[in-house]
């Protein structure tokens, strides 16, 4: 049975433009239906954390949003574009406006930090001069606190540093939307907090809208304007951290214990 969603505290985002709007999203793999009618809206400048037990379709959801997985039913609107019906060329234009931070940071091991950040610029911003690209690289590394790592190889960096560099590489294209897949997984408590604070800083500086998939409740508490909980492929509850922490539903509260 679906849990009654709690009322969401009114905040600055409630009158903002919808940057992502998902209606009746279904996705199955063979006979296994992972998403069973997801409805979800993300407003401009809003951080939304998605919680759920393993296998509930959290990562599948964001793969559908960026068009890596085709949907079986429903509609996904991203920046006023219907992801499921546009051409590949138009989809790529939308993807450029979205940043994706993988669990592993997905850096190119054979490239220095500078080359890792320069790579997306050379592909997507060919009008920029080498000096302009260098200035952007320096700015992004400064923003993530790793200016002195510019000539290092990924193998020389800690897990937290690689995550920061991965974030810098994503942000260098100035995305309007950020998708974070378990951004603090495998990191110690202090480094996890640093990454969570970076996510918040990115939102505040760039006015990005973000979906954050996480099991880290400290990350959720720090970064979320709103939390959405998935169960058996549907949204069963949503609200602020405080509202859901005090939910009358025992299963919902279990995430916060």
Provide key terms for this protein.
Rossmann fold; 9 helices
CATH superfamily heading of the largest domain: P-loop containing nucleotide triphosphate hydrolases
| Strand arrangement, major sheet | 6-7-8-3-9-10
CATH architecture of the largest domain: 3-Layer(aba) Sandwich
Q: State the assembly state of the protein chains.
A: single chain
What Rg is obtained from the alpha carbons, in whole angstroms?
A: 18 Å
Low-confidence stretches: 1-13
Report the biggest beta sheet as strand number plus sense, adding barrel if it closes. 6 strands, mixed
Strand content: 15-25%
Number of strands: 10
In DSSP terms (H or I, runs of 4 or more residues), the helix count works out at 9
Distance between the termini: 22 Å
Q: Secondary-structure element order, as H and E?
A: EEEHEEHEHHHEHEHEEHH
Structure class: alpha/beta
> What number is the mean pLDDT?
90
Q: Please tell me the total number of domains.
A: 2
What would you call the shape?
globular
Helix content: 25-40%
CATH topology heading of the largest domain: Rossmann fold
CATH class group of the largest domain: Alpha Beta
Q: Could you describe the 3D structure shown?
A:
- The protein has 2 domains: 1-97 and 175-257, P-loop containing nucleotide triphosphate hydrolases (Rossmann fold, 3-Layer(aba) Sandwich), CATH 3.40.50; 104-174, no CATH class.
- By secondary structure, the protein is of the alpha/beta class.
- The longest helix is centred in the C-terminal third of the chain and has 18 residues, at 189-206.
- The model is unreliable at 1-13 (pLDDT under 50).
- A hairpin with a 2-residue loop joins strand 1 and strand 2 (32-43).
- The strands form 2 sheets. The protein has a 6-stranded mixed β-sheet with strand order 6-7-8-3-9-10, with helices on both faces. It has a 4-stranded antiparallel β-sheet with strand order 2-1-4-5, covered by helices on one side.
- Helices cover 35% and strands 25% of the residues.
- It has helices at residues 58-65, 88-95, 113-124, 130-143, 159-171, 189-206, 217-223, 241-245, 250-253; strands at residues 18-29, 32-43, 47-51, 73-78, 81-82, 98-101, 177-181, 209-213, 226-231, 234-239.
- The relative contact order is 0.19.
């Amino acid at each position: 049975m679906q849990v009654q969603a709690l009322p969401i505290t009114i905040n600055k985002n409630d009158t903002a433009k919808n940057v992502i709007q998902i209606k009746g999203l279904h996705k199955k793999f063979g006979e296994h239906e992972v998403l069973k009618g997801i409805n979800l809206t993300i407003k401009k400048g809003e951080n939304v954390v998605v919680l759920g037990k393993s296998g509930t379709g959290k990562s599948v959801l964001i793969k559908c949003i960026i068009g890596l997985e085709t949907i079986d039913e429903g509609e996904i609107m991203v920046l006023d574009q219907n992801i499921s019906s546009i051409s590949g060329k138009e989809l790529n234009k939308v993807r450029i406006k979205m940043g994706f931070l993988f669990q592993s940071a997905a850096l190119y091991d054979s490239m220095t930090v500078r080359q890792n950040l320069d790579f997306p610029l050379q592909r997507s911003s060919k009008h920029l001069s080498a000096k302009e690209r260098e200035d952007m690289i320096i700015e992004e590394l400064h923003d993530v606190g790793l200016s002195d790592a510019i000539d290092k190889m990924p193998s020389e960096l800690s897990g937290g540093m690689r995550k920061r560099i991965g974030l810098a590489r994503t942000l260098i294209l100035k995305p309007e939307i950020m998708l974070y897949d378990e951004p603090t997984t495998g990191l110690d408590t202090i480094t996890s907090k640093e990454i969570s604070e970076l996510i918040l800083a990115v939102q505040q500086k760039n006015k990005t809208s973000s979906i954050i998939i996480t099991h880290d409740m400290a990350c959720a508490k720090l970064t979320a304007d709103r939390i959405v909980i998935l169960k058996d492929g549907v949204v069963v509850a949503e609200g602020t951290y405080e509202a859901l922490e005090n939910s009358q539903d025992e299963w919902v509260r279990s995430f916060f214990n």
